[in-house]
Amino acid sequence: MREAGHWEHPMGTLFGDPLPGAPEMAHRGDTVTGVRTICLTNPDQPDVTRDKAEGGYPLCSRELTVEVWYPACPEEGAVPAVYTDHMGRTDTGNLVPFSMPGRALRDAAPDSSAGPRPVIVISHGYPGSRFLLSNLAESLSSRGYVVLSVGHKENTYEDFAPQRSLESAVVHRSLDQRFVISELPLLNREGFLKGLLQPENVGLVGFSMGGYGALRTVGARLSREALDQFESIRDELAEAPSFHGLKAVRAAAFFAPATFWLDETRLQDLDIPTIWFCGTADNTVHYQAVRRFWQHAEQSDRILISYANCGHNVANNPAPPEAQSASWEIYKRWSDPVWDTWRLNNSNAHFLAAFFAKNLLGQPEMDLYLSGTPENGQPGDMLQDLAGFVPGGSAGIKIERL
CA 328, CA 319: separation in Å to the nearest integer? Predict the structure, then answer.
């Protein structure tokens, strides 16, 4: 079945495929991957998009659509997935669907022969979708992980809240992540994922606002300034004193994380291995702010991947063909003025494959691909060849480690 899928769409033609010259770990693994869509419901959550009453915000059942990639059996007749994402946004009246062929097999039977697998949870930006990083999800799943990508309610292109969408993101982004991770034991006991999960061996990936949420999930705290800025939802943002980061998360990756609401002096609970990605020309979350925050996370064995002159979109899929005839306002969601997005995808897949193999699979030899600038390198030098890259293929990429 995989052979047929590759014949229909030659390698290098679908989002996330390794291009010629792609780094070593960007190439797909040997696991046949299935994909299914599930819905998880978190009861009694505050709906901060509605008016606040005397007793607080009204409570609702918060429904989250989650895409799940998992090890699967290569059954005869299994059909490769076609993902539907959107250009535009529903609240601005320009929502247009488009299709993306994938390599995972839609609704394929799960394969439990290799036993329980580590889990990776992906959290998109603001706005975004559960398919915004589908390239990364398929690549990671092919290496034996169960990958869950969360569609954050009121923050997706399909259901972007016309009012207080930002408040929804600030309150719920981390809570959604924590809820999905808390559901892993149940998902491992019943349903198609039964016996496939390691609920206490979780990797977390967050892009932009998803990175903000991921930082809170692993123990970062809000600043006093942020609590003052969001006075109307201060109670909903309050963190229990007993919370010191979700311990099921063993390693985390942050792509251009929004750090500006977090307190860089209160990072003592952020004590797991982390890897950070940011473009030096990021004017959305600001590269220097992210780098300073990374430096202050002193309890974490941490890596910073800097992309020279890249903007904010360090993690997204490449632009669909439909966007290439649209306006720049539409196209820029997947684009960068300097970097080729597909090359970024390959680089990200390479580094994350090594990072999670080391920290979730216990493969210390993967450190080879995560080594920092050589001792004789200059502080601003991004042109040295990095392990796993073809000669000249790591131009513009710098690794720092603390």
Answer: 11
* Structure confidence at residue 54 (pLDDT): 87
From residue 77, alpha-carbon distances to 10, 70, 103, 117 in Å are 19, 18, 14, 26
The pLDDT of residue 383 is: 54
CATH number of the domain enclosing 314: 3.40.50.1820
pLDDT at res. 216: 98
What pairs with residue 82 in β-bridges?
101
| Residue whose token pair is 């109307």 | 232
d(CA 368, CA 99): 37
CA distance 348 to 358: 15
Q: What's the CA gap between 36 and 29, in Å, rounded?
A: 20
For the chain, 402 residues long, the average pLDDT of each consecutive 10-residue run is 50 87 96 97 98 94 98 90 96 96 96 97 98 96 98 98 97 98 98 98 98 98 97 96 97 98 97 98 98 98 98 96 93 95 97 98 97 55 80 95 94
Has this prediction a pTM greater than 0.90? yes
% helix / strand / coil in the chain, to the nearest 5?
A: 30, 25, 45
Bond preceding residue 185 cis, omega within 30 of 0:
no
Task: Please identify which residue in the block is written with the tokens 């969601």.
Answer: 333
pLDDT at site 240: 93
Ordered strands of the 117-123 beta sheet? 80-87, 96-106, 33-46, 59-71, 146-151, 117-123, 197-207, 249-255, 274-279, 302-307, 397-401
- Listed in sequence order, the DSSP H helices in 163-219 are 165-182, 184-189, 209-217
| Residue 9: per-residue pLDDT | 81
Cβ–Cβ < 8 Å for 343, 336:
no
Domain that holds residue 300: 2-90+97-401
d(CA 393, CA 60): 50
Total structural domains in the chain? Answer: 1
Burial of 70 (0-12, 13-18, 19+ CB in 10 A): buried
Separation between Cα atoms, residue 354 and residue 220, nearest integer Å: 25
Torsion angle of C-alpha atoms 151, 155, 156, 160, degrees rounded to 10: 140
Q: Which residues of 78-196 form beta strands (DSSP E)? A: 80-87, 96-106, 117-123, 146-151
